[in-house]
Design a protein that fits this description.
By secondary structure, the protein is mainly α. It has one domain. The protein has three helices and no strands. The protein has helices at 6-24, 32-42, 47-78.
Length: 80
């Protein structure tokens, strides 16, 4: 019998692995001109806000990629 919180624990584990991957794979660094143009386009006050948003998007992107890759691997080779 499956535990009712199994899917939540699985998702939390994948997000934890994504967080570790984000720490190991640095977010892309932007050039100064590109950073300033993005700051003006999105009406940000300083570079800290821009890089905070970039870090969050990087975390979400890696989390989604890892979720779908691990789900594919699990369904392909380990599911009964």
């Amino acid at each position: 019998m499956k535990h009712p919180l199994e899917s939540l624990v699985t998702l939390a584990g994948i997000l934890l692995m994504a967080f570790i991957s984000v720490l190991l794979l640095p977010a892309p660094s932007l050039g100064l001109q590109l950073a300033q143009s993005l700051m003006q386009r999105f009406h940000l006050l300083d570079l800290n806000q821009l890089y905070t948003l970039l870090y969050c998007l990087w975390f979400l992107l890696l989390g989604c990629i890892e979720f779908f890759v691990l789900r594919f691997i699990w369904r392909r080779w380990f599911a009964v």
